[in-house]
Specification:
- By secondary structure, the chain is an alpha/beta fold.
- The strands form two sheets. The chain has a seven-stranded parallel β-sheet with strand order 3-2-1-4-5-6-8, sandwiched between helices.
- β1, α1 and β2 form a beta-alpha-beta unit.
- α3 packs across α4 and α9 runs parallel beside α13.
């Protein structure tokens, strides 16, 4: 019998993708959601067991781990990551879990200027010392950022805090979900590994704007704006934690710390990650 796998952030981009793949493979999925909504209802319809819990509530996380041996951890872009990691790691240990996949980020470093990135580095150290085998994922910036920027792209703008010369290879959450599912389906050989995850092609911000415009058949111009402006435009409000992160990773992007490509998506899943143009074409209705 296939084990039941706990998927954190199950209604989010990476968690939902992983959950659906694991269900298709015949695994039981316990979908950890922050609330019941249409997304959790869709997972339930596919056969997942939906559990509503807050990662900052240790008692709830402990209950979610009842009978669980493998799990995926992800935390949203907000304060509380280190506390949530401690809850998850302790609950996994008490459940005698055999494996965790941890969603970190490419910019996770002990000296990262981003509070979020530094906290991801600390979270990795908690998992490393907690006793349950773990693999860390280090994705670069998601293609999904373009979905959050739908309004400005509809207006023909790609306005970001990144300078024009820095590079990174955007990766789709769908491809990350495939990596998560593959590792959790068979954790053999993955313990203690850190996997940088990228799309297939490095691009500068002007090249991203051009790629998006070409795929949509319209002109999309690149603009440089401040981190504060980006958050206000995308989120519609001031979010200090997110603003601090955007400003800091803009520095890391400028300094080449988001650059590089890897072949881990293909090596782990057996399929190549989608290009940015393919991602835009797949979701084109969002920007039309």
């Amino acid at each position: 019998m296939q084990p039941t796998i706990l998927i954190g952030g199950a209604t989010g981009a990476t968690g939902s993708a992983a959950a659906k793949i694991l269900l298709e493979k015949g695994f039981g999925v316990r979908a950890l959601a922050h609330k019941e909504d249409g997304r959790s209802g869709q997972l339930k319809a596919l056969g997942a067991e939906v559990v509503v819990a807050d990662l900052l509530d240790f008692r709830a996380v402990r209950r979610a781990f009842d009978g669980i041996k493998r799990a995926y951890f992800v935390y949203p872009m907000r304060p509380g990551l280190v506390q949530a990691t401690a809850h998850f790691a302790q609950a996994a240990l008490e459940a005698s879990a055999e494996f965790i996949v941890n969603m970190s980020q490419k910019t996770a470093r002990s000296d990262a200027p981003s509070d979020s990135a530094q906290q991801h580095w600390l979270a990795e150290r908690i998992f490393d010392r907690a006793g349950t085998p773990v693999a860390h994922l280090h994705p670069t910036a998601f293609c999904e950022w373009l979905l959050y920027m739908r309004k400005m792209i509809r207006e023909g703008r790609y306005a970001v805090a990144f300078e024009p010369t820095g590079r990174f290879a955007p990766i789709a959450a769908e491809d990350q979900g495939a990596v998560i599912a593959a590792i959790l389906a068979d954790p053999t050989g993955h313990a203690g590994k850190t996997y940088p995850l990228t799309g297939p092609v490095e691009l500068t911000p002007p090249e991203i704007a051009e790629t998006v415009g070409t795929a949509l058949g319209k002109t999309v111009r690149y603009e440089t704006i401040t981190g504060e402006q980006w958050v206000l435009e995308v989120a519609g409000q001031d979010i200090p934690f997110l603003t601090q992160h955007i400003k800091a990773i803009a520095e890391m992007h400028r300094d080449g710390l988001m650059a590089g490509t890897s072949d881990f998506v293909e090596r782990i899943t057996g399929r190549a990650p989608m290009t940015l143009a393919e991602f835009v074409d797949k979701h084109r209705a969002v920007w039309l």
